[in-house]
Amino acid sequence: MDKLHLEKHISHQFDVDLEELKSQALEMGGLVEQQIIDAVSAIEHGDSDIAERVIKVEDDIDLREVALDEACTNVLACRQPAASDLRLVLTVTKMTRDLERIGDEAHKIAKMALALHESADGLTGYEEARHMGALVQRMMQQVLDAFARFDVEKALDVAKADKQVDREYKSAMRELVTYMMEDPRSISRSMNILWTLRSLERIGDHARNIAEHVIFLVKGLDVRHSSIKEMERQLNKR
């Protein structure tokens, strides 16, 4: 396991500031992870109460992003971090942006759940939403753990898992389009499921982004827009 070991500083407060950034990012990540779980549950069970809760919590996620951005700016201005310390601050800044966008996607799913609340039983797509939801929730869990532990191998596993989410999305899309062609009356409800699956696919993309940020943090490598093979090749050089 590759890990980053942040150096201790003469100023104890500097260490506290960096640890606080990391802790707040993980706290925000945990909140976003629960949003995914709740949003998918609202879709699966047609639970409008859970959907409303997801929508309300989204405001808290937005406030956390702003607060973390401000905290990162203060550390940059007051501490002028370098090397791994600077990478940590930059990673938190980028990571919180992806977390906020994941919160936005969970918010969209919750809205779809409300729209589907009165839908007829038996509509196809719910099982696919549940399965994709489980996949992206596991990605979120793993990528937050990778960040907490500065674990490059686990981050790479998350990037690989995004490919599976993409495959599931394409397969579900084909099935739903076929269903709509066979029963035009289902188009409106099916479109809500399609948008739900699209949001889940986007959550997978953002989880991969965070995994790439972790690799940058630990290794100093910018692996954005790289294939999995290219990532592995670059990491094997280090």
TrEMBL record:
Family, per the entry?
Belongs to the PhoU family.
Does this UniProt record's set of keywords contain Transport? yes
Domain spans labelled PhoU: 26-112, 130-214
Entry protein name: Phosphate-specific transport system accessory protein PhoU
Whether Cytoplasm counts among this entry's keywords is yes
Q: What does this protein do?
A: Plays a role in the regulation of phosphate uptake.
Q: How does it assemble?
A: Homodimer.
Q: What is its main location?
A: cytoplasm
InterPro entries registered for this protein in UniProt = PhoU, PhoU-like_sf, PhoU_dom
**What range does the record give for the signal peptide?**
none
Q: Where in the cell is it found?
A: Cytoplasm
Which keywords, in A-to-Z order, does the entry hold? Cytoplasm, Phosphate transport, Transport
